[in-house]
Specification:
alpha/beta, Rossmann fold, 5-stranded parallel sheet, 8 helices, 5 strands, globular, binds ligand Z5A, P-loop_NTPase
């Protein structure tokens, strides 16, 4: 049984990941593969509990950058071992709303955690495991946050200063430039054009398999 492929959708809040995921899911199914969809942080009962914990506003208790980083990798360790790898090994394709690039962009770029602190966690958690395709939906923070804020209350991370999101975006773009499996999609275009670009990127990926 050939292993499945691991596809990740990344981007700032309001980038349009939800509709991209729906589109890619139906394209994978159309190609005849079973899809397991997941999200980070989360995707297992324990990792979903970590998600609640990490997004919650703890009022007077400051959430340290170190605690936030460790929680992201703890959730990822659970998800990779319990869901992603078993699904890929059984031949299913896995479609993820965020993965490791989020930690490198948000914690590494946004929170300015040095690579010397992140790299050992990546090694412990992933041992070189990485997506076959990452679609990064690129939006200026002002555009994405305006879309996301239309939905209501902001969680703890979304309450960060705009400069945090600018640093996160810059880091995403640098990471994509260094990753031959990553494709940058201009997600500031009209929805129809974004969807066309996503479909084309996925078709190019399928053509290389
Ligand atoms: N995080 C982290 O710090 N480190 C990590 O390692 C990981 C995560 C894994 C997860 O929260 C938070 O955790 C996230 C990063 C951090 N935090 N922040 N801040 P989440 O999962 O709840 O949030 P999200 O991933 O950012 O989801 P989102 O805000 O829902 O973004 P989205 O899924 O991309 O948005 P959407 O629902 O697809 O679109 C938002 C709206 O925009 C919607 O009404 C769309 O119809 C509209 N939209 C989308 N595209 C367009 C275009 N092209 N034109 C016009 N309108 C559009």
């Amino acid at each position: 049984m050939p292993k499945g492929k691991f596809i990740v959708i990344e981007g700032l809040e309001g980038a349009g990941k939800s509709s991209a995921i729906a589109l890619i899911k139906s394209a994978i199914e159309h190609a005849g593969h079973q899809v397991v969809s997941t999200r980070e942080p989360g995707g297992t009962p324990m990792a979903e509990a970590i998600r609640e914990c990490v997004k919650k506003d703890w009022q007077d208790e400051q959430v340290t950058t170190e605690a936030e980083l460790l929680l992201m990798y703890a959730a990822r360790a659970q998800l990779v071992a319990n869901v992603i790898k078993p699904a890929l090994n059984s031949g299913c394709w896995v479609l993820a709303d965020r993965h490791d690039m989020s930690s490198r962009a948000y914690q590494g770029g946004g929170r300015q955690v040095p690579d010397s602190m992140i790299e050992p966690l990546r090694e412990i958690t992933l041992h070189g495991f990485h997506p076959d395709l990452t679609l990064y939906l690129d939006v200026e923070p002002e555009v994405g946050l305006a879309r996301a804020r239309g939905r209501g209350e902001l969680d703890r991370i979304e309450q960060a200063d705009i400069s945090f999101f600018h640093r996160t975006r810059e880091k995403y773009l640098r990471l994509c430039a260094d990753d031959s499996n990553a494709v940058v999609i201009n997600a500031m275009q009209d929805m129809d054009k974004v969807q066309q670009d996503i479909v084309s990127a996925f078709a190019r990926f399928m053509g290389q398999q």
